Amino acid sequence: MKTTISEVHKYVDQEVTIGAWLANKRSSGKIAFLQLRDGTGFIQGVVVKAEVDEDVFTKAKSITQETSMFVTGTIRKDERSAFGYELAVANVEIIHESVDYPITPKEHGTEFLMDHRHLWLRSKRQHAVMKIRNEIIRATYEFFNSNGFTKVDPPILTGSAPEGTTELFATKYFDEDAYLSQSGQLYMEAAAMALGKVFSFGPTFRAEKSKTRRHLIEFWMIEPEMAFYQFEDNLKVQEEYVSFIVQAVLDNCSLELQTLGRDTTKLEKIVAPFPRISYDDAIKFLHDKGFTDIQWGDDFGAPHETAIAENYEMPVFITHYPTKIKPFYMQPAADRDDVVLCADLIAPEGYGEIIGGSERIHDNQLLQKRLEEHGLTSDAYKWYNELRQYGSVPHSGFGLGLERTVAWISGVDHVRETIPFPRLLNRLYP
């Protein structure tokens, strides 16, 4: 019976064959222990010299790291293993021998591992991070599909920029200028006017020359947009969505979280509703904490966000930022025009902003005024303006950065480990 490691629980005390690679091995005279992986998981194969043919034991002791093979044996329960099962090996059939595999069990530097990212992905730690990433994606689709959202795919090549052109990758679109998208938001607003509640999930690009552990040049965004939803409605969806994906990872990735050494008691506290602090109060809080470098009207940096987050055990909304430091499309507060109806959701434990969202301007004249103030009067925004001319309604949305969210939930230090092939300021290989 051919099966996979993730399915062995169905075949206890039965003989199975698994296609696998050798992740590691050790032997103690008459027993060889093979750490096997097949993409679905990891299992220990035990080869006892007295229970197999001599050539099988000899082969098991000489197999090199990352050699591919078919391994046949009996599945047994193993209470000592976090996985819960082991394979009593009866036969090994080599498919391809791996020679001088570069990533050995010893310590390697980060740059070496990044140069070999195509192989580093095979490690147990990276496997766990990718599985958690996949679960967050799966849960994202479940959440939005079960709540009446329609998936819409905005273009990656655009003729305009939602948040200015200073951090965009420019290219030529035949005989006109184009940019790699930094957000699908403007297009999702159009989709919301047609379909009510929509979400997108796709790659975005920022030509930001940053080397921090929170930044990537190419990353993935989940961007919902909702017609007839105002500021408070928007926050409610955000906290329910984040609570949902955290619970999904706790339910379905317990082994991966254990592999990463994640303190799950911290994740178990992530339940909506989330605390909030206004920008005004955040400035006062930071001053009280000794951050005299920041003044009202300044944007928060990583140290400021971390200081605020440390005051809470759950993600915290920072709301009502100054109008002048936010994009042109955000709706001003009803009682003061110097702040807008927006919020950044800051993850606990120093992981920074994972969501940025706002109520969008729905008045055509105000939007036109904001476009002019930002020098965005070209024909490229004509279609966006027209959304307010034909049946405009209050609407809101947000964007969640997948990689920062994976980093936070997984407990890994750097976002470069949360995407299969990271694009960094100094890295376009592999």
How is this structure best described in words?
- The chain is an alpha+beta fold and 430 residues long.
- The chain has 2 domains: 2-96, Nucleic acid-binding proteins (OB fold (Dihydrolipoamide Acetyltransferase, E2P), Beta Barrel); 118-417, Bira Bifunctional Protein, Domain 2 (BirA Bifunctional Protein, domain 2, 2-Layer Sandwich).
- Helix content is 30%, strand content 26%.
- The strands form 3 sheets. The protein has an 8-stranded mixed sheet with strand order 7-11-12-17-16-15-14-13.
- A hairpin with a 3-residue loop joins strand 2 (15-27) and strand 3 (31-37).
- The longest helix has 23 residues, at 124-146.
- The radius of gyration is 26 Å and the shape is elongated.
